[in-house]
Amino acid sequence: MMSFVSLLLVGTLFHATQAEQLTKCEVLRELKDLKGYGGVSLPEWVCTTFHTSGYDTQAIVQNNDSTEYGLFQINNKIWCKDDQNPHSSNICNISCDKFLDDDLTDDIMCVKKILDKVGINYWLAHKALCSEKLDQWLCEKL
């Protein structure tokens, strides 16, 4: 009985910490405010977020001296602030953990600042994988 309770508890905890895994169509819908901003189309964003975070709103990638957060993998050295990098430039004036929730409003506001400052090439996947043959990133359900 004890092992069943332990297993049930672990299963409950695992479910509570699962990330929000969006679909291609959900990403297209959620990112409509980015359409054309900085000259970047929605299919380019769908492709870029797929190759950056796998459409995972709670993706966290640890690098040597920095961490990237959320759907857009926004870096804590320049764009947001966390405990790991308390001296961040924090250009988006936001706590990095805000990029891990399902509300993409603040993520999109920061993405626009990134686009204004450094452009789409901030996301390395864009140039390599998302600048042509974009039909596959469209969604017929929209």
From TrEMBL:
Any one Pfam family match given in the protein's UniProt record, by short name: Lys
Recorded GO MF terms: calcium ion binding; lactose synthase activity; lysozyme activity
Domain Glycosyl hydrolases family 22 (GH22): 92-110
Compartments it resides in: Secreted
Principal location listed in the UniProt entry: secreted
Leader peptide range in chain numbering: 1-19
Record's keyword terms, sorted: Calcium, Disulfide bond, Glycoprotein, Lactose biosynthesis, Metal-binding, Milk protein, Secreted, Signal
CC annotations in GO: extracellular region
Gene Ontology terms: biological process: defense response to Gram-negative bacterium; defense response to Gram-positive bacterium; lactose biosynthetic process
Functional description taken from the UniProt entry: Regulatory subunit of lactose synthase, changes the substrate specificity of galactosyltransferase in the mammary gland making glucose a good acceptor substrate for this enzyme. This enables LS to synthesize lactose, the major carbohydrate component of milk. In other tissues, galactosyltransferase transfers galactose onto the N-acetylglucosamine of the oligosaccharide chains in glycoproteins.
Complex formation: Lactose synthase (LS) is a heterodimer of a catalytic component, beta1,4-galactosyltransferase (beta4Gal-T1) and a regulatory component, alpha-lactalbumin (LA).
Protein family membership: Belongs to the glycosyl hydrolase 22 family.
Protein name: Alpha-lactalbumin
Taxonomic source organism: Bos mutus grunniens (Wild yak)
